[in-house]
Amino acid sequence: MKNKHFVYIIVTVILLGFLLLWYASRPKPVRRVQANPKMQAVTDSTVLAQRDVTLYFSSENGEYLISEARQLSCGGDEGCIQAVVEALIAGPVQQGIAVLPAKTQIRNVHIEEGTAILDFSPEISSGHPGGSQSELLTVYALANSVAVNFPHLRQVAVQINSQQVDTLKGHVDLRRPLIADFTFARQSIADRLATLPDDSAPEQEK
Hints:
Blueprint: H1 2-25, E1 39-43, E2 46-58, E3 65-74, H2 77-90, E4 106-112, E5 115-120, H3 123-126, H4 132-149, E6 155-160, E7 163-164, E8 178-179, H5 189-195
Parallel strand pairs: 5-6
Antiparallel strand pairs: 1-2, 2-3, 4-5, 6-7, 6-8
Helix pairs in contact: 2-4
């Protein structure tokens, strides 16, 4: 009888050992973590999040700039500036008129010493309707949209295919960075030009 009890004990211990080995080696359940709804995606270690921005478009009559509030998904200053410019290219969703040709592409954004350098495809020039008034609305919509959303960047430089340009269509001087000017959102172009000294008026097409 003692031998039988000893055999039962040995068998029980062996079975418990197998059970413990099975339990230790079984697949562990995957723990699912609920993502923060504000965080949209992770790309190249940059977290994309919803950001409230203000964009500037032309008024319906082409006389001044009007603002539009928008939410964009972006990450980092350069990525968010690119998203702002892409939204300007896409045009307004409320009222107003787009200030950039629809086929324009923003090729690159670079920040250098407080200046946002915007590198565009050639369509920003070839597809632009021209005229000093239209060019003023385009360049100051860019400068103001950057400055109002990124207060540490008060000016923009415009390039085409990574090259500096003199103008878009022969009017507004782009050889130097443009400083934001929010009076274009409160005055008509004609009234704004009347307040400028003669030597600061945009270069006219010859």
